């Protein structure tokens, strides 16, 4: 596949991530920090987000299973998850984290459990979409150097 077509596909994929509300302007700001000295900067940041998210999701699951539920601890974990999500521009995940925190403030266990499922779903969808996006970016980079 020629370089221009790959670059066009990457641009279209990125546009769709924004149009569908998965990403916000923070992602563009991350991309602007990427340069020839660190061509994989954004992918590395997102990979760190994945490992941090896996830890936080595990912690939240454990806290939700605790009896009684420690809403303060839950809110702390979700605050961290929201911050990580926001730092890479994960708009839908960040929005669901906000809803979860509102349920924590209300000490609504059922709302927390239900919203946490949404958080995990939005996270999983974004992760799949970004994996495809970064694969396309890598293919375009290889075509660029070929």
Spell out the key features of this protein.
146 residues, mainly alpha
Describe the protein's architecture and organization.
The structure is a single chain. The chain has 146 residues and is an all-alpha fold. 83% of the residues lie in helices and 0% in strands. The chain has 6 helices and no strands. Helix 3 runs antiparallel to helix 6 (109-145) and helix 5 (91-105) packs antiparallel against helix 6 (109-145). The longest helix has 37 residues, at 109-145. It is elongated, with a radius of gyration of 17 Å. The chain starts with a helix and ends with a helix. The mean pLDDT is 94.
Q: What is the first-to-last residue Cα distance?
A: 11 Å
Stretches where pLDDT is under 50 for at least 5 consecutive residues are none
Strand % is under 5%
Q: Could you estimate the helical fraction of the residues in percent?
A: over 70%
Provide mean pLDDT, rounded.
94
How do the SSEs run, as a string of H and E? HHHHHH
**Computed Rg:** 17 Å
Q: What overall geometry do the principal axes of the alpha carbons give?
A: elongated
Per DSSP E runs of 2 or more residues, the count of β-strands stands at: 0
Structural class: mainly alpha
Count up the helices: 6
Q: The biggest beta sheet, please?
A: none
